[in-house]
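Thread: Newbie trying to understand structure tokens

Hi all, I'm a second-year student working on a class project, and my supervisor (Dr. K.) asked me to get a predicted structure for one chain before our next meeting. I've only ever worked with sequences, so writing a 3D structure as a token string is new to me. If someone could post the tokens and maybe explain what I'm looking at, I'd be very grateful. Here's the chain:
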Amino acid sequence: MSQNDLSRSDAPVRLKPGVVTGDDYVALLAACKAGGYALPAVNVIGTNSINATLEAAARNKSDVIIQLSNAGARFFAGEGMADKAEARTLGAISAARHVHLLAEHYGVCVVLHTDHANRELIGWVDALVDASTREREATGRPLFSSHMLDLSEEPIDDNLAECERMLKRLAPLGMSLEIELGVTGGEEDGIGQEHDGAADNPKLYTQPEDVLQAYERLSPLGHFTVAASFGNVHGVYSPGNVRLRPEILRNSQALVAETHNTAPNPLDLVFHGGSGSETQKIEEALDYGVFKMNIDTDTQFAFANAVGRFVGDNPRAFEFQVDPDSGKPYKKQYNPRAWLRKGEQGMADRLDQAFADLKATGKTLTKDQRTPGDASRSGVRRSPPVGPDVAACSRNHAMTGFLPPAHPGEILREEYLAPLNMSAGALAKKLGVPRTRIERLVSEQSPVTPDTALRLAKYFRTSPELWLNMQGGYDLKREAAAKAEDPKCVFALFNFILWD
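---
Reply by user tm_fold:
Sure, no problem. This is what the structure looks like when written as tokens:
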């Protein structure tokens, strides 16, 4: 299937949670571009960083991209493996299986990807494609959604020739290829180079003519994405050292669209070096067809910072198993589960910001697109019947023409606790309230009180009004249904509440 065919595919209303490949992957990208949002692409190195990413995605009700660099994949297998090439291959496969096993249980779509691979690492990518070929023969799906070749430092003809070869392997498996045109500054696990800091360095800006050439050579072969350089760099740099120019992306999209008479923004673009970027520049990039922004440096620091603070708060626990003065045992503090969990939480908290910056929060394709508390649970907003339609309603129509009101406890249970695999008791402990209060709430036996609303808002980062309005709406609808004698009035009243 060609790039144009794929870009015209209609995105399904819902996708099954888990790793997406083939048409589902393309549908997810199309939804991102149509919705004006992008997904964070998070570099991972082990189960802790994978689990933190999945936790944050579920909490934010957003789909996500999980990716491994060659060094991250090698670390996943263990630095004790003597054969580094074998380690990076086995580590990537092991990570992929971990994601496949868990992603669907977190209730979000995951794009599984490998990051920068220069000429020396092409063998690593080929080995992973071999693994996906075997996996597809056995299960009907590849291990990964996509791979990246970063040959941006080579002449463009050499770059695109190798990309053509690789895409011919990937396309029949339902996989995509990410390419890089122009050199993204900085370094990513040994790939790339430090830029010279000058804002006018031509290597930091992709030429639209190069993007057009890539489109013409690759789009007939299969789906591909482009990491175009517009001044972005890997790592975090002092303000003023790098000047982002998102108009480079706009110009590339316009040239391809005009030359081949396509719809606007025909290219699926990637923003590398996203850590530390200005929110305004991120938003501008989204307007020009960016569906993905890499994040690594910021999440590394967030993980390490949270662990460091825990160690700083419990210094003697990391010197003594038992305090020599007081005799207090420190097992609960030095247990790796304690401080690794702090790292996961710190990383997940930083990803909350990434989802928000990229406008991805609440936009997973695995469920109906509605916010908690929306009385319409169909996912499709239909116009309410008015005038003669209401007058003609029979008693049966009045009682079945709308969904019953949703108790806030149902919303809390299904939309917040279930994706996190969290029990009512666990939430009560985190909120500092009696266990029975939350248990009765989620079982729809008791209402949301102002105190509970304040605590829920603080923990889930919502507003207390969200919970109180849910409760008020629920109470109003129940009262209306109980008191109204004329079923036509009930139907009209409920439709006013639902749709006005």
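A couple of things are worth pointing out once you decode it. The longest strand covers residues 109-114. The radius of gyration is 26 Å. Feel free to ask follow-ups in this thread.
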